[in-house]
Design a protein that fits this description.
Strand order of the largest sheet: 6-2-9-10
Radius of gyration: 16 Å
Helix content: 10-25%
Mean pLDDT: 89
Number of helices: 5
Structural class: alpha+beta
Shape: globular
Strand content: 25-35%
Distance between the termini: 23 Å
Low-confidence stretches: 232-238
Order of helices and strands: EHHEHEEEEEHEHEEEEE
Number of strands: 13
């Protein structure tokens, strides 16, 4: 299965998240930006995926971190058929910059700009566990996020689309956005992670309208990723 979606598909999902989860999108976070290396780790390492843990810090119990963010594990050794309870790594990476939606209208990915970070945050495993548990608590008690599992995993053992982006010299950062889909195949994970490559100047590198890919100045491909796992709780081993 390909993870790639068009910019139009991504824009619709982001707009849907703003409409369905307005309080989150306008007050907590619509997404964040992080250095490419914070997701990739060592380019020579052998790994089976890239994992992001959803962290609810809305009550600011950990004042050094944003209200809502993804903590990334570099070189994650997970497979997309297991029940996952906590990070494997003792140290993870979190963004220093997150962003919200300033209005009900979505400006489109091709035009969206935010500041770029000078560095990313280091976050330890116990803190991530605490904040992902808060995410789970809010989801269980209030259906706050429409996301049953507090993580987003891009498997790259059988799908190398994210690994290919990592090799593109024009890509220096990734913006991640929260999207929403009513597609039944996502089950109880309707909140979706959208991953967009970003150039050194901070502009999103998105394909032309109607296209899934385009070639950047270095000759590498750029595209938008979305279909992270889990798409449906029925795919998990019990």
């Amino acid at each position: 299965m390909s993870y790639i979606i068009t910019a139009e598909e991504a824009d619709r999902m982001i707009a849907q998240f703003i409409a369905k989860k307005k309080n989150i999108a306008t007050k907590e976070a619509l997404g964040g930006i992080i250095h490419k290396e914070s997701i990739d780790g060592s380019s020579s390492a052998i790994y089976t995926g890239n994992m992001g843990w959803l962290c609810d810090n809305v009550n600011k119990s950990h004042s050094n971190y944003p209200k809502l963010f993804l903590a990334f594990e570099r070189n994650s050794n997970y497979t997309a058929d297991q029940e996952i309870e906590e990070p494997q790594s003792s140290v993870l990476v979190a963004p220093t910059i997150t962003f919200i939606s300033s209005s009900d209208a979505w400006p489109l990915l091709k035009d969206h700009m935010t500041p770029i970070p000078t560095s990313d945050n280091i976050i330890d495993k116990p803190t991530v566990i605490d904040l992902k548990n808060e995410f789970k608590k809010q989801e269980k008690e209030n259906k706050k996020y429409s996301k049953e599992h507090p993580y987003c995993f891009f498997e790259n053992k059988n799908n190398t689309e994210l690994s290919v982006l990592m090799e593109n010299e024009d890509i220096k950062y990734f913006r991640y956005y929260f999207g929403y889909s009513d597609d039944q195949s996502y089950g109880n994970n309707k909140m979706r992670l959208i991953l967009v490559p970003v150039a050194a100047k901070g502009n999103n590198l998105v394909p032309d309208p109607g296209q899934k890919k385009r070639v950047s100045s270095s000759g590498g491909e750029v595209y938008i990723l979305q279909k992270s796992w889990p798409p449906d709780s029925s795919n998990l081993k019990k």
